[in-house]
User: Which sequence fits this backbone?
């Protein structure tokens, strides 16, 4: 009789055989898994790579121990397919053309989570699982590349910089801009090291963007444009379509190859990475949904019913920007607008959800909605909803920055996070290179202008830094590439659960 472990390995190998067969090559880019602790493998239709992880206490090192056929992770060039012309010239790149920046680190961290899947299926650039023209979630560079711009107090004026960062670098960078002193904390390898700004930190401070002569910023405002493709945003800034973004780049720095999202390149996992400086496998909010085998239950984080409770899944010892700021400066004021990764904020939109007062968000939102393309609001339910949500975000931000919102008085916040949704809705609906995506950028840029104006009205522009970022990239899918790998697994009689499209848990559950 085979043991339970032997049966699990046998099932995994059967599933790998199905997923990496030529029949699924148009939808499955590769499958990644961890056969043993600190050992990882990526397999595709035409090859595999196995790599191992070692710690030197402060950081991880990765070594390839086996390659068969074509190494699926051979190309990890973060500069591939940027700027926009390069992306447009190679849409839906084939696996031999694609690149997977920082692949080893981004894959390995998933399997540090106790609810990591048995297999993580990564879809191809062309695959269109949801009927959307724009997609993300995979390891490829276009789906992983968010914009990253920092501008204003404390930031050197460099314009477009030939570089990239990781989204986990944003939280420590924000805290360093605010002048916090680093100290001991749990670093990337899980060991306590010096130089940390958060109690659990994978990312690093982007000191190369700082003005060595400058003072710390008294105020930092982060503007997240959900799902905004970095190349498209930078192009809109350069062409005058997004003049407010353009001014921020002119007065600061934009990383040409963007901020690389953690894996999976999806919304809630990366909102939480941005706000904690840790990878999803280390902060706890692993994906939009996963399966907890030890408790025999599904966990859904990203849904209208569960957004507001998402922070309950943070691991012990993880800190948000809000919490780290308050640890150093108990009387600092911090604000989280339309942001589910909000723990520790003095004001958070999701507190209104948790208190059952969500109806109050409509108070003070002008009608008709300002900065909203009327033709797209009329044509698309998602565009209309995103416009309404973002108009409410602006109403919250400008009211708090003016000193009062919903009857509560505020001093000028030290730290403000504001998340815009319209970009994600429109970039999904039409794809990143569509007219609806351009309209969303115009509207969102105008809202960014309102954020800048609210800062100016308080007379603190010179003391304020603004960061613009997104939570993942967005790739134009192919019209002719739908399908579900679950059909092939079911046909082969392989029992499994597929959570959030690609997190496979094998066996009867
Ligand atoms: Zn998103």
Assistant:
């Amino acid at each position: 009789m085979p043991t339970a472990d032997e049966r699990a390995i046998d099932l995994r190998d059967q599933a790998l055989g199905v997923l990496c067969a030529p029949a699924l090559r148009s939808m499955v880019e590769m499958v990644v898994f961890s056969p043993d602790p600190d050992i990882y493998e990526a397999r595709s239709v035409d090859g595999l790579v196995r790599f191992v992880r070692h710690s030197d206490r402060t950081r991880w090192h990765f070594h390839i121990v086996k390659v068969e056929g074509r190494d699926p992770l051979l190309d990890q060039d973060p500069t591939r397919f940027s700027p926009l012309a390069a992306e447009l010239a190679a849409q839906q790149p084939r696996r031999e053309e694609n690149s997977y920046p920082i692949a080893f680190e981004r894959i390995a961290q998933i399997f540090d989570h106790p609810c990591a899947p048995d297999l993580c299926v990564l879809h191809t650039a062309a695959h269109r699982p949801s009927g959307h023209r724009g997609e993300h979630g995979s390891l490829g560079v276009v789906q992983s590349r968010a914009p990253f711009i920092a501008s204003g107090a404390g930031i050197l004026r460099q314009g477009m910089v030939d570089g990239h960062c990781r989204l986990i670098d944003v939280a420590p960078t924000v805290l360093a801009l605010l002048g916090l002193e680093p100290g001991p904390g749990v670093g990337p390898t899980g060991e306590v090291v010096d130089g940390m700004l958060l109690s659990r930190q994978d990312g690093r401070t982007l000191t190369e963007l700082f003005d060595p002569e400058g003072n710390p910023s008294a105020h930092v405002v982060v503007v997240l444009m959900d799902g905004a493709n970095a190349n498209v945003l930078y192009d809109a800034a350069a062409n005058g379509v997004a003049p407010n973004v353009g001014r921020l780049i002119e007065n600061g720095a934009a990383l040409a190859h963007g901020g690389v999202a953690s894996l999976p390149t999806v919304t809630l996992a990366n909102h939480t990475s941005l706000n904690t400086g840790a990878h999803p496998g280390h902060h706890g909010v692993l994906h939009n949904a996963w399966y907890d085998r030890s408790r025999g239950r599904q966990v859904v984080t990203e849904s209208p019913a569960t957004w507001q409770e998402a922070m309950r899944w943070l691991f012990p010892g993880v800190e948000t920007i809000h919490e780290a700021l308050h640890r150093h400066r108990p009387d600092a004021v911090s604000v989280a607008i339309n942001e589910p990764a909000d723990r520790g904020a003095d004001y958070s939109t999701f507190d209104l959800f948790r208190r059952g007062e969500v109806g109050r968000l409509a108070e003070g939102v002008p009608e008709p909605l300002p900065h909203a393309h009327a033709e797209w609001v009329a044509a698309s339910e998602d565009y209309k909803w995103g416009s309404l949500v973002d108009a409410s975000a602006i109403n919250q931000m400008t009211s708090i920055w003016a000193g009062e919102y919903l009857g509560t008085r505020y001093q000028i916040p030290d730290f403000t996070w504001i998340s815009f949704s319209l970009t994600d809705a429109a970039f999904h609906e039409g794809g990143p290179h569509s007219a609806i995506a351009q309209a969303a950028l115009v509207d969102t840029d105008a809202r960014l202008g309102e954020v800048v104006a609210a800062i100016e009205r308080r007379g603190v522009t010179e003391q304020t830094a603004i960061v613009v970022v997104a939570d993942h990239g967005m790739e134009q899918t192919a019209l002719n590439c739908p399908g579900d790998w679950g059909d092939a697994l079911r046909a082969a009689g392989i029992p499994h659960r597929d959570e959030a499209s690609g997190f496979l848990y094998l066996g009867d559950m």
In short: The first helix runs from residue 4 to 19. Residues 226-227, 267, 424, 471-472 surround zinc ion (CB under 6 Å). The chain has two domains: 4-142+477-506, 145-476.
